[in-house]
């Protein structure tokens, strides 16, 4: 909420000097990043990021077995997994 005030005092109204403007925006930026970091740490406190590893980032992993009909027999499933590219059933 203080960014519009800082803009109005510096660029909008030319009330404060450029050095004061830089300090004002610097303090606002530092406090914003500290507060934003604290918010992220607070809301991600109970999240387990190591459950699936960094590589997956929560995306689903599709295995070959997910493409096979679950009602077929185990022999058919094994035969389907052993086929090479280009072969037909």
UniProtKB/TrEMBL annotation:
Source taxon at top rank: Eukaryota
Protein name: Uncharacterized protein
